[in-house]
């Protein structure tokens, strides 16, 4: 008797070219992994952005990551810790789907250029090149979503409501309903997005693109090569004949954890400058006629204000949360690839 077929098997999907099927899997598995990890790490990401955004302030609002988490919890509750979550979830799904898809495709491009079979295992420098390219491509998708996310994450500490039109009756009703700190009517992600487009045009959505490009390009190279190096080292300890496909769940998690820590620590200054640029108008408004912040200008201002320490504001909590978050991403991605790949 034939065994019943698994209705969830990829084999039941109408036939398509192998390359297209692999692309679908990369997008699906990457999206799922990114979404799950972002729900876990969002409160820590919010803390990071708020610490980064206060570097240029005369007086710091928070004394450190723990103080920021505690004050956010007391003043804004659980909703405050997850403020702006929809945008990061979209960003995480886009980021990981784009990263894994681009990484796979660029590996094939490198193999074709070098006249190597598609099954050939690339060297670490070649994997670094593919990872950097994947990060560069992904950066253009991420910047608009991260702009909205960062603006929403500083809403409650901004000196005034963000530059989004809120009906006067709505704002008045919110202020009268409660004297609590979170009573202020706040715009949602769509309102923030449309406000940027109205005031700055579509080009305004890519404010901070230079920082995102540097972070994702360098970070992509570091992330993938670290994961591949640590993962392959662990696999080979069990047997020299084993390949990357033989990786165990704990090996995926450990190698992913190492990759996450190295990615975030090595590229953190670029991320700090990007976040400061994206929240500058909301926290330190200079008027519509003032020149827009630039990457180098913001970097110099942050260095003058607090030196190297300012460029690494929030780094500790970011690296700490990126270790389990990246472990989750690769645990899920490798697990799904092994199960359905």
TrEMBL record:
It is a multi-pass membrane protein. Keywords: Membrane, Mitochondrion, Repeat, Transmembrane, Transmembrane helix, Transport. One of its GO terms (molecular function) is L-ornithine transmembrane transporter activity. Signal peptide: none annotated. InterPro entries: MCP_dom_sf, MCP_transmembrane, Mitochondrial_Carrier. Pfam families: Mito_carr (PF00153). One of its GO terms (cellular component) is mitochondrial membrane. GO terms for biological process: mitochondrial L-ornithine transmembrane transport. Solcar repeats lie at residues 21-109, 122-233, 247-339. Belongs to the mitochondrial carrier (TC 2.A.29) family. This is Mitochondrial carrier. It comes from Suillus plorans.
């Amino acid at each position: 008797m034939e065994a019943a077929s698994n209705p969830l098997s990829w084999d039941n999907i109408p036939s398509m070219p192998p390359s297209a099927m692999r692309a679908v899997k990369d997008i699906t598995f990457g999206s799922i992994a990114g979404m799950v990890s972002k729900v876990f790490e969002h409160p820590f990401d919010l803390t990071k952005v708020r610490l980064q955004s206060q570097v240029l302030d005369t007086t710091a609002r928070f004394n450190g990551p723990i103080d920021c988490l505690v004050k956010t919890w007391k003043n804004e509750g659980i909703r405050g810790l997850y403020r702006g979550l929809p945008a990061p979830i979209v960003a995480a799904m886009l980021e990981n789907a784009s990263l894994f898809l681009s990484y796979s495709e660029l590996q094939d491009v490198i193999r074709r250029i070098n006249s190597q079979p598609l099954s050939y295992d690339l060297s670490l420098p070649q994997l670094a090149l593919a990872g950097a390219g994947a990060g560069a491509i992904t950066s253009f998708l991420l910047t608009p979503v991260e702009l909205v996310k960062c603006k929403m994450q500083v809403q409650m500490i901004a000196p005034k409501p963000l530059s989004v039109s809120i009906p006067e009756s709505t704002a008045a009703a919110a202020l009268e309903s409660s004297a609590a700190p979170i009573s202020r009517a706040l715009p949602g992600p769509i309102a923030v997005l449309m406000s940027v487009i109205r005031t700055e045009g579509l080009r305004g959505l890519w404010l901070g693109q230079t920082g995102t490009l540097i972070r994702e390009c360098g970070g992509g190279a570091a992330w993938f090569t670290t994961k591949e190096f640590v993962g392959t080292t662990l696999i080979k300890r069990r047997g020299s004949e084993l390949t990357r496909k033989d990786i165990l769940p704990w090996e995926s998690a450990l190698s992913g954890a190492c990759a996450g820590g190295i990615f975030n620590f090595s590229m953190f200054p670029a991320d700090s400058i990007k976040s400061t640029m994206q929240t500058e108008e909301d926290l330190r408004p200079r008027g519509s006629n003032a020149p827009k912040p630039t990457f180098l200008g913001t970097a110099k201002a942050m260095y003058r204000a607090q030196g190297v320490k300012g460029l690494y504001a929030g780094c500790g909590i970011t690296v700490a949360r990126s270790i389990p978050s990246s472990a989750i991403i690769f645990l899920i991605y490798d697990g799904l690839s092994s199960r359905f790949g």
